[in-house]
Design brief:
By secondary structure, the protein is of the alpha+beta class. Helix content is 49%, strand content 16%. A hairpin with a 3-residue loop joins strand 3 and strand 4. It holds the Pfam family DUF8048.
């Protein structure tokens, strides 16, 4: 449902942000631990249907979360909060993980974009955007749940 110019909700049209909003434990894809706005931005740029992205991100998140200890030991953590730890990982990280997850090239690219957008959102909030943009020139990002 969307809201029209008159402030009334209009049935029949669903916004991506409404689809990604948590509704409790209904088993619907959430998009992993990533910021909802980051998911929407990645969905707009990705070469996969926006409706598929949350499921892909959930699969990737389960993979990452199962290896949280490895990420903490092997990679630089550039941001932590109560819910996530954001790591800089080598270029090609998502290509390798995508093979493990049986993702297509386009699906890997969509997941990579979503994780990078999450870092950009964190950078904007923490006044570290330039630093993180520079890091993204030589590294990729993996967001792991805490």
């Amino acid at each position: 449902m969307t809201v029209g110019a008159d402030g009334e909700r209009q049935p029949g049209r669903e916004r991506l942000s409404e689809r990604l909003a948590p509704d409790g434990d209904d088993g619907a894809p959430r998009g992993g631990a990533l910021d909802g706005t980051a998911i929407m931005l990645a969905a707009a740029k990705a070469s996969v249907p926006a409706s598929n992205l949350p499921l892909l991100l959930d699969r990737a998140q389960a993979y990452l979360d199962g290896r949280a200890g490895e990420y903490a030991q092997e990679f630089e953590c550039v941001h932590e909060d109560d819910e996530t730890a954001v790591y800089l990982v080598p270029l090609g990280h998502w290509d390798t993980k995508g093979l493990d997850l049986d993702f297509s090239h386009r699906e890997v690219d969509a997941v990579r974009r979503a994780h990078a957008e999450h870092l950009r959102r964190v950078g904007a909030d923490a006044d570290r955007r330039d630093e993180f943009e520079t890091a993204l020139e030589i590294r990729e990002v993996a967001v792991v749940s805490r």
